[in-house]
Amino acid sequence: MSEENLRIVILAAGIGSRMKSSKPKVLHELAGRPLISWLIEAAEQLNPEKIIVVTAPQMDDVREVIAPHSAVIQHKAQGTGDAVKAALPELEGFTGDVLVLLGDTPLMAHDTMQDLIDARHLDNAGIAVLGVELDDPHGYGRLIPDKKGKLARIVEEKDCNEKEAAFNVVNTGAFCVDGTKLADWLAQLDNKNAQGEYYFTDLPEIAAREGVKTEICITYSEDEVAGINSRAQLAALENVVQHALRQKAMDEGATLLDQDSTYFSYDTQLGRDVVVEPHVFFGPKVRVGDNVRIKAFSHLEDCQIGEGADIGPYARLRPGADIGEGARIGNFVEVKKTKVGKGSKINHLSYAGDGEIGEGVNIGAGTIFCNYDGFDKHQTKIGDRAFIGSNTTIVAPATIGENALIAAGSVVTKDAPRDALYVTRIKPMIKDGWVSRFQDKKKQQKEG
Ligand code: UD1
Ligand code: CA
User: Fold this and answer.
1) In the chain, what is the greatest distance between 2 CA atoms, to the nearest angstrom?
2) How many A from CA of 380 to the centre of ligand 2?
3) Which of 47, 214, 284, 370 is deepest in the core (most CB within 10 A)?
4) Tens digits of per-residue pLDDT, 193-221?
5) Is the pLDDT of residue 18 over 90?
6) Which residues neighbour 211 within 8 Å (Cβ) at sequence distance 6 or greater?
7) What residues make up the domain containing 310?
8) What phi and psi, each to the nearest 5 degrees, are found at residue 439?
9) Within a 10 A sphere around the Cβ of 20, how many other Cβ atoms?
10) What is the pLDDT of residues 276-300, one digit of tens each?
């Protein structure tokens, strides 16, 4: 059931110039997920009738990420007020609450959004603004109170006089506005300010002219309302998110030997009694079963690991690695799009790509699945209990039968039947005393 009296507008059309990036700011990531997706997830929890994202014309990539929600286009970034105007076609005839959020404020929680909506209905205010008190208000618009302590106006930092700049209750950028009045108030915005922009933050003053009040809703969670304008602010919020994800992993029964060097993605799933050694990176879409140990310096993304498996140190699990129960992936082993069966071992210095490895298989050091011929990727299949000797090169497509034994140093270019010994090896040539004869001959030539 959607909340018929609520529509949410998220502003994301700004160029984000302070990021110094060719990528839209809202697509920068926290814990492997775009900023805008964090905010949308929280917004969805309010069950709004619509979520409308304001984007710039060239931002097809943002529109892809926010789908299936509606996107509108602000043709020129002329300020947050102008951005909300771009959403008006999606608000036509709508008389409920319009919640306006900034796409670069990713961590706002849905209950804070709800508090803001509730604040607008207190005392019949036309607008509610979410404020926060900061020790250092630098960079934020200031909420300037009137004599009664109510909101008089919002002044952007660049437009502040010294006295205004000293106020430290600031605008988080989130507003809830009476949908029946929004269009009318937006039409009254001007751009007579330091940045020559249409500021959404001028709305309270415009409403006040009609005798309509703005309620201030105060939040105490600074992290939730922190805006990201620079890489340094992105890094600071990444720390906040990582801290929370580590806490969650530990709450759910994982041991992190050095939590500060464990990097999680927003969706990392760890089972119980998983032990993570120092310096492990979890990219998006990693699922780890119970009792797995992930040893130091391993890098994992889009993969799953079965119960009791042992990974690393220095393992690299790439997308589609599916490691079976009790399997063992050792140091300097890279696995991609390969299923490794129960109890199988790839312990040292190997590459397994585009493969299917049965149960109880042993893959010796330095084994390479040659999966790519420069044009296509090919499959390698290895049956249960097969033994692949060290330094084997498997030229895919190739099938190695159950219980087959590939001798060390072989190049596999034909299928190996089950139970067969497969050897490709030049017969050794041994010449007794050859080295000293060779050396004597060379010496004589030099002296002669
Ligand atoms: C804004 C607020 C400021 C508040 C701060 C909180 C205004 C004028 N200022 O400042 O009071 O303290 O956020 O973080 O509202 N955007 C558009 N179109 C535009 C301009 C911006 O869609 O033309 C979007 C941006 O993509 C961004 C968001 O609006 O997601 C905020 O814009 P930004 O330029 O970062 O505003 P701040 O200077 O941070
Ligand atoms: Ca901002």
Assistant:
1) 113
2) 50
3) 214
4) 999 999 999 999 999 999 999 999 999 99
5) yes
6) none
7) 249-422
8) -65, -40
9) 8
10) 999 999 999 999 999 999 999 999 9
